[in-house]
Design a protein that fits this description.
The chain is α+β, with helices and mostly antiparallel strands. The protein has 16 helices and 34 strands.
Length: 676
């Protein structure tokens, strides 16, 4: 559902896109259509320090800053959120523990579920009830609320999540609790489900609002500290591929859980569409993890994500993450097998070659194989310690009775296998043939592994962006301003009335436009797009389809049904047109398109890349150690052709071209690689 347009708009701005990863902080400065980039180590203890240092080094003082943040993600995954209480309808206090009774690992008898973020002693049930029509069956009394306040003060809860049954139809009781809690002497961070996720399914809704409360305090403090030096124009990338104000991100940080990875997909899709490739698989390999996403002509979204074992129901780009990054630690397990990840060396201490860590990583393996050059890392600003890696690799090699080169190749094969499984999960398991797609690698490590990944999966080509190491920051910078709204309606058959649906959408749109106008955005630049969550009657899951806004009232049921049957066939391999369907949720996406970099296509010159040749070096592949030309990426121009084995070196990434692969620079500066 994100805006997939690649055309520039008339909304000019100077923008700085900031993406904070586990290892590096990337900065992209877009001004007057020109793009400049910067990269520096992250500061995990306080991400804002790396950001402010990077901004200082770019010499940008006055700009609109858009930030892809991992603060909420890290707080959730590391269990460093607030002490969180849950307020719900009496009798439903244990909804977080009960869940859906589904098992992430069906045959694992010893599997542990993620602990409830609101422990049992901090779950409070109030006597109130709203029925399935939104009618109040049992009023919530002020005495019950005052009793609740006393219990919360005694519990020393730092954050409170409020999620009443059927509050998505009638939020009166949640509003009463919200107003009362705001009046406390020292009010906690408050999150209510009717504002965060006004949809049915009490477990997913409650889980989402509890996650929001759990990370809210951490995110709010962080953004307040960051806004002071950067200014009130700070915007935050959300998981759905658009940006929101820092204020809204403070109120609903759950929308930023996949903030950074979403920026990468937006940047990759924009780059690929510009080059003429609409069907892509993105591979974002950073220092800590690899994020993969499949884009079949559009950026795909989901509203049923699970992060760290916690269901989250807000819109997110459909991204699959595995613990396979440049910093993933290699070791030998108890059975004598070589394993890589998911543990990562991160930015501190980092890979062994950075000079501090004692554990070998994928980055160390690539250095030993000659795929990274010690004196050219980060454009020469950082020197890697090859001698340190040699000694540690020998120790690991001795454990598996191999030499150091074989061990390093083994590390690469293992991490590649982890990424291959991730790509199969988002493609083959969902009815898509990866051989019909183009692989777009980015992140600091992505281009080093892309050709080998493509070869194993039968993907016919690899498109390496001009600036792969900072593509997530670019995606953040060019992201449209987006607001998402949803509403549960449960309409089927005769109830599926066009007039009522239009009225519901118009109400949502009016609210959205009012809120965006309050942020100083031009209402006339806003584009509203409407979607429906549809399912078979009695089915327990939905598929999202476009709302048919230009059909007659008599046709609407058939058109919606046909769209659903087509989507169901694609996703699950079958569809029954005789079964009735129902509309469960309405979804509205309102966005303001922002300007994109003005890249003029270049005319091809001679294919000989000798002007970019900076030397030769020995690089180890499966075929053995091979003399490989080294090319400076910035010196390659449109039409230049290279053949493997070769390395293409730039400040933010290194591209490995294995034997049997080759390609040329396209008119937009991308490197298109294919088997020769």
């Amino acid at each position: 559902m994100p805006n997939n347009s690649v055309t520039a708009t008339s909304v000019p701005r100077r923008v700085v896109g900031i993406d904070v990863g586990g290892t590096f902080t990337d900065i992209a400065v877009l001004e007057d259509g020109r793009l400049t980039v910067h990269k520096l180590p992250s500061t995990p203890a306080d991400p804002s320090q790396g950001i402010l240092q990077g901004v200082k080094e770019t010499n940008v003082t006055s700009a609109e800053f858009v930030h892809g943040s991992t603060v909420a993600t890290n707080a959730l995954l590391e269990g460093k959120g607030a002490r969180t209480a849950l307020v719900t309808t009496m009798g439903f206090e244990d909804v977080l523990e009960i869940g859906r009774q589904s098992r992430a690992e069906l045959y694992n008898l010893e599997m542990d579920r993620a602990p409830a973020l609101a422990p049992w002693e901090l779950r409070f049930g109030l006597p109130e009830r709203v029925d399935h029509t939104g009618a109040i069956v049992e009023d919530l009394s002020s005495d019950a609320i005052q009793t609740l306040i006393g219990l919360l003060e005694e519990s020393k809860a730092e954050a409170v999540a409020v999620s009443f049954l059927f509050s998505f139809l009638n939020a009166a009781h949640e509003d009463m609790v919200l107003n009362a809690l705001r009046g406390m002497k020292n009010p906690p961070y408050i999150s209510v489900s009717s504002q965060v996720l006004p949809e049915f399914r009490e477990y997913e809704r409650t889980s989402t609002v509890v996650v929001n409360a759990y990370v809210g305090q951490v995110m709010s403090r962080y953004l307040v500290e960051l806004e002071a030096p950067l200014g009130k124009g700070l915007r935050i990338m959300q998981s759905s591929g658009g940006s929101i104000t820092a204020r809204l991100a403070s109120e609903q940080p759950v929308r930023t859980i996949l903030s950074g990875p979403a920026g990468g997909v937006v940047g990759a899709f924009y780059t690929a569409m510009q080059a003429g490739y609409s069907d892509i698989i993105t591979v974002d390999m950073g220092g800590t993890s690899t994020d993969v996403s499949l884009c079949p002509g559009v950026i795909k979204e989901t509203t049923s994500a699970n992060v760290g074992g916690y269901p989250i129901g807000v819109p997110m780009i459909d991204i699959h993450t595995v613990g396979a990054g440049g910093g993933s630690i290699a070791r030998v397990d108890a059975g004598g097998a070589l394993v890589v990840g998911p543990e990562s060396a991160g930015a501190e201490p980092g890979p062994a070659c950075y000079g501090l860590g004692e554990q070998l990583t994928v980055t160390d393996a690539n250095l030993l194989l000659g795929r990274l050059l010690p004196n050219r890392f980060l454009g020469g600003r950082m020197t890697l310690d090859r001698g340190r890696v040699d000694g540690l690799m020998q120790g690991l090699a001795d454990q598996i009775d191999a030499d150091t080169a074989q061990t390093a190749l083994g590390i690469n094969r293992v991490v590649n296998a982890n990424m291959e499984r991730a790509i199969r999960t988002i493609s083959l398991e969902r009815g898509y043939d990866p051989r019909l797609f183009t692989l777009v690698p980015f992140g600091g490590a992505g281009p080093m592994h892309a050709c080998e990944l493509a070869q194993e999966l039968g993907i016919p080509r690899v498109l390496v962006p001009a600036r792969p190491g900072i593509l997530s920051a670019l995606g953040v910078a060019i992201a449209d301003i987006v607001k998402d709204y949803s509403r549960t309606v449960m309409l089927r058959g005769a109830d599926l009335d066009r007039t009522r649906v239009d009225e519901e959408f118009q109400g949502m749109e009016g609210l959205a436009r009012t809120e965006m106008a309050g942020e100083g955005l031009a209402v006339d630049k806003m584009v509203a797009r409407r979607f429906l969550d549809v399912r078979y009657v009695g089915q327990s899951f939905e598929l999202t389809v476009d709302y048919p806004s230009r059909v007659t009232k008599a046709e609407i049921t058939k058109v919606i049904g046909d769209a659903f049957y087509k989507a169901h066939l694609r996703r699950f391999g079958y569809a029954d047109k005789n079964e009735p369907v129902e509309v469960v949720n309405l979804r509205l996406k309102l966005d303001v398109a922002m300007e994109k970099p003005s890249v003029e296509p270049q005319n091809a010159v001679a294919p000989d890349p000798k002007a970019a040749l900076i030397g030769k070096s020995e690089v180890v592949f499966q075929q053995g150690a091979l003399d490989s030309p080294l090319y400076q990426r910035e010196q390659l121009v449109c039409g230049n052709r290279i053949s493997g084995p070769a390395l293409v070196i730039q400040m933010d990434a290194t591209t490995v071209v294995p034997p049997g692969w080759g390609g040329a620079v396209d008119p937009f500066g991308n490197l298109l690689l294919e088997p020769e």
